[in-house]
Every structure is written in C-alpha cells, then in structure tokens.
Amino acid sequence: MREKGLGVLLLLTLMILPGCGPGREETKLEFRIPVRVAVVKTGKVEDVLKLTGNLRAESTVSLAAESRGILRIALRGDGRPLAEGDRVSKGRLVAELVGEDVRVAARMEATRQRFLQAKSDLEAKKELLERGLITQTEIRAAESLLEDAKLEYDRSRLSEKRSRLISPIDGILLELARDDRGRRIAAGQILQAGQIVARIVPRGALIADVDVLGPDIGRILVGQKARVSSVAFPSRSFSGKVIRLAPNLDENTRTLRAEVAVENQGDLLKPGMFVRVDVLVAQHENVPVVPRAAVVDRGGKRVVFVARGQTVEQREVRTGLGNDASVEIVSGLKPGEKAVVQGMETLADHSKIRITS
Q1: How far apart are CA 188 and CA 74, in angstroms?
Q2: What's the whole-model pTM score?
C-alpha cells in the first residue's frame, strides 16, 4: 500500500512541474468596454416650440332683446327647450319675446289694415281719375298716404321680427338666458330692452392663445403649422396654424401673445380648455438621424463613436435640427453605420468594445 501511495504522489508531481517551469506563457486578459449601439437611420426630424395656452372662440355672436317682453325659449326637435351646448343652424329661432308690450310695439294688425286701406283707396282714385272725376292732385295725396302707411307697416314688421331672436350663423349655444352675474333666467321672466339673451360661437375653428418667452420670440412666425393636444383626448392631435402675433410684449410678463387657429374636428375641443401647442419651426425629411444620446462633446467638438467590429472610431459630426429624442446628422455619419448610445463615458478613439445589445 505504501508503494502505491508513493506512485500516486510521484504522478501528481510530474503533472504539476511542467506548468511551473520557466517556459510557460502567461495568458493576457483583454478588457472590452460594454456599450449599446443604434443604427443610423434615415428619417424625419423637427424643430418644435413647445407651448401651452387656452382655447377660446374666434368670434361670438350676441343676441339681445330689442324691446321689453316675456322670454320664451325655442324648442328642440324632441320638444324640450334649447340649452347651452346645443347646435343651432343659421336662421334658427333661439328665443322670442312675447306679451302686451311686444304687441303694442309692433301694432301689426293696425298698421297692416291701414296699409291695405291706403292701397285700396289709391286704386279706387286711379279709376276715378281715368273717368275724369278727380284731379291728379288727389292722386298724389293718396300716393303719399300709401307711402306713410307702408312705412308704418314695415316698422311694425321689423319690430315683430326683432322680438324673434334668430341665429345668424351655424354655431353652438355658448350661453343662453343668463343675467349679468351669470345666473340663469327662467323662461317666462320679463326681459328689458338691450338685455343679452344668447351668445353663439361658430362651429369648427377655435383660437389657442399662447405666450412665447425669451429666445423663442424670434423663432415664431405667422403661418407656421402647429399640433394641438388636450389631456381630455390624449390619443388625438388637432391641426393648427399661427395666424397672429401681438405687436408688443406684455409689460408684466415680458411675453409675446400668439394666436393659433385650431381645426376642431368633431367639435371635441371646447372654449376654455387648457391645451399644449407644438409649433413647427422647421422640418427636414430623409436625413440621417441618431438618438440624441449618441452625440457627445469631446474637446469642444461634437463627436459620435462609431462601432467598427470590436473597436470604435471617434468621428466628428455636424448636427442640424433636433428634439429631445433625436438629432439630424448633417455630416460625419452615413445611414447604416452603428453609433454608440450608451457606455461612451470612458471611450476614446480605437477603444475596444463589447456590444451588449
């Protein structure tokens, strides 16, 4: 047994000795920096001003009582009175004023009868003139009476018409039967002449009032396109366009007021809503684009590290338009090349890398 144990020990010694000899080559460990890369693609990039504002109607039509009378709200097709938020078409009766005051102001029946009588008298006198029984002077007097009667009748018809409040546009009832304090006026109450009965806003376009700050003031121009969105409709975007810039800055906020016309498809947006407005300053299409993280500053230059096999090449680039996510490459990169987007903190030209994804 002792000889067998010595044999095993001798065998192990012979196996270990060659590895410890002076001729052994040491294995070198090579460190490669782990990085993530993105392929340079061709795409669209925009320069956008991100603003916020409030919506309002472009214009408002007010219908006022022109004489004293009792308020009567017009009915909808289902028999219920019109209400705020309802759509009305051009020529649609919104409300009317009724009562004795209105009737007296109009005097429709009396003036109509007077007009018809004057017209009949003139026709009769013309027959008498043809028979030589009256003179031309009497005809002129009858014509004068008819003109006076017609004028009174037209005034009566106008007065009656004014008691009927008609929408002059296709729009939406923004306000209906409210007093100066915003309280509802019930049907059947007496209104005074001059009192506002309804306010109607046109359907469709709204205006977003936005305030532009500092350096952005020099970048916004009339005619620029815009995208408008609201938290009420997070998956929808509405088209817009800058239509007006204020001639001066606000003295208190030092901001420039800009008006953006918004296409309100489906009448989803409402006056008073808070919205985000992205004004498109410039747009380039079919240009090389990389994630913004790929462009770093080295020695006062903008560079991108381009993966070439297991090493990187530090490449100076010139950038164009950009946003928070991506940037246009004007020169220095070509579509299809791989740009390092993560792990470039310790990279230098020709550093060895290991692409992790």
Answers
A1: 12
A2: 0.60
* Cβ atoms of residues 273 and 319 within 8 Å: no
What is the per-residue pLDDT across 231-266, written as a single tens digit (0 to 9) for each? Answer: 999 999 999 999 999 999 999 999 999 999 999 888
The answer to whether position 106 is within a domain reads: yes
Select from 202, 217, 234 the last residue of a domain. 202
Q: How far, in Å, CA of 320 to CA of 288, rounded?
A: 10
User: Does residue 104 share a domain with residue 216?
Assistant: no
The CATH number linked to 225 is: 2.40.30.170
Give the closest residue to 268 by CA, choosing from 231, 223, 224. 231
Based on the fold, state whether residues 98 and 189 are members of the same structural domain.
yes
Among residues 325, 326, 255, 317, which one has the least CA distance to residue 289?
Answer: 326
Contact 304, 340 (CB under 8 A): yes
Pick from 165, 200, 169, 173: nearest CA to 90: 169
* 261 in a structural domain: yes
What is the C-alpha to C-alpha distance for residues 133 and 240, in angstroms, rounded to an integer? Answer: 76
- d(C-alpha 286, C-alpha 45), whole Å: 9
Instruction: Specify the pLDDT at position 160.
Output: 58
